[in-house]
Design brief:
Strand order of the largest sheet: 1-6-7-9-8
Radius of gyration: 25 Å
Oligomer: single chain
Shape: globular
Distance between the termini: 47 Å
Number of domains: 3
CATH superfamily of the largest domain: Dipeptide-binding Protein, Domain 3
Largest sheet: 5 strands, antiparallel
Low-confidence stretches: 3-22
Mean pLDDT: 94
Strand content: 15-25%
CATH topology of the largest domain: Dipeptide-binding Protein, domain 3
CATH architecture of the largest domain: Roll
Length: 601
Amino acid sequence: MRHLATAALSLAVLSFVPTALAADDVESGPSIAMYGETKYKPGFTHFDYVNPDAPKGGEVRTAAFGTFDSLNPFILKGNSAGVPVDRLAVGSSDEPESQYGLIAETIEVPKDRTWVAYSIRPEARFNDGSPITADDVVWTFDTLKSKGHPRFRIYYQSVLKAEKIGDRKVKFTFAPGENRELPLIVGELPVLSKKYYETHDFEKTTLEPPLVSSPYIVTSVEPGRSITLERNKDYWAKDLPVNKGRFNFDRIRTDYYLDENVELEAFKAGKYDFREENNSKLWATGYDVPAVRDGRIKKVEIPNQQNQGMQGFAYNIRRDLFKDPRVRDALAYAFDFEWSNKNLFYNQYTRSESYFSNSELASHGLPTPEELKVLEPLKDEIPPEVFTKEYQAPKTDGSGNIRANLEIALKLLQDAGWGIKDGKLTNAKGEPFAFEILLVEPAFERITQPFVQNLKRLGIDARIRTVDTSQYKYRLDHFDFDMTVAAFPQSLSPGNEQRQFWGSEFADEPGSDNLIGIKDKAIDNLIELVIASPDRESLVTRVHALDRVLLWNYFVIPHYHISYFRVAYWDKFGRPSIAPKYDVGFDNWWVDTAKAAALTQ
């Protein structure tokens, strides 16, 4: 399961009437778990990783990379800034597979999970004070699925309908089949105002903040430059257990930067207060300034147990150039991770060799007997290496001499019909092997350039093209690229979102997350098995099987990951004594007035 900030996919609605269930077969309560029970029981007062007595107040300034031209995150058009919006239910950051009612007061689900009903809290309100109704929930679902970003249609494809069954209750009915995640997916629904959109066009970009329920209200917008939020002091849900100790800042301003180095210099100059660092070089060398040395800026590494997913050079296999898996395998030998980690990353990273890195969901070794039961029926449709080898990314000694790897690459390319002519790699038609690597962050140029140089030694003409965020989004939405750096984030409970990443049905759907263009029946079957997992043990087994098949198809050249957050901040904050396992948890921090005053002095 993956939280969707914006989102997608349509499926033909099947005729389906759920079997009548006795009352004893229906569970009802304030929370729901995918498997087993939730950590927090009815009557809990707050999450363990917050300070329930955290003071409210103060201002915080943050930064974002890129730009924006819209405040409508629910559609494909435009480059939207995120806006806070409440959902039916929310997850906690220290357990997987669980949700707790937010707008919803109770969650009702039968044991066979063929439907779920959410009862809306009578006190639930939009930010203008109008009540949130069952009609709003039904309208939101129908609109997002029919007019929203393609990701919504994909994510909700197995939800057949939403219907009002009471003044404050909505029932969602699901397509046939085992899919324990669907009640939780429905819980992630952001709830919009039906009345508001009677006078506003849902399908247009806009810089007018939409009417939602949220702990913060957009109060100022400088298009492409900044957005300011102020704490909603009349927020109806501020004292709910799921919100206690959270959303403590009175004012949050986010400034947008088009250059990563300028963004860092602005932080060190005190232009903003909090920064999560994603650049290893900057983390190692960019913070040697007096404010760090004397403690005014805190530079910390916060361990996490987050599923790191996969980041890598992603192929667009819609391109004829990359249809042959031998070609995709070959190019991976030109990426020298060991040299890059030593010379560019200051040995901060671990090589990714799974689409579910840093979690129990990552495959390793050879398939277990349980995994073989999943894989063997697909034996004729998947790479044979799945059964005989553990996937390992190409390795080097870190010296920069990768001649042996390039020899392996050249042999693979020759097997695929390519050869060297006049120093250039060409096919039987004499066409050169040439492609473009599309980037959006200049920081990736230093990582990509050594890869390009190694490709040139193979006679390949690879070029780097870095574009602005708006052009980059448009080109990815329409699959107009050869290769790009892509990240495929994963949760601890993979499920329906796997269709978005790898499903054949969405390979040609503009805006889908199937950037690679995968159309593979065996992978489709594995995705459906993952979704239908009846328990945690079978989920892990089936994800391992899916992971192996993805890896041995060479869809990406794997990059790297870390198991901690790199965070720098001006020393004006208080933090809870317990950190969440799966999140930085910045919305649980607060401004410490004494520290803030000391900084000012």
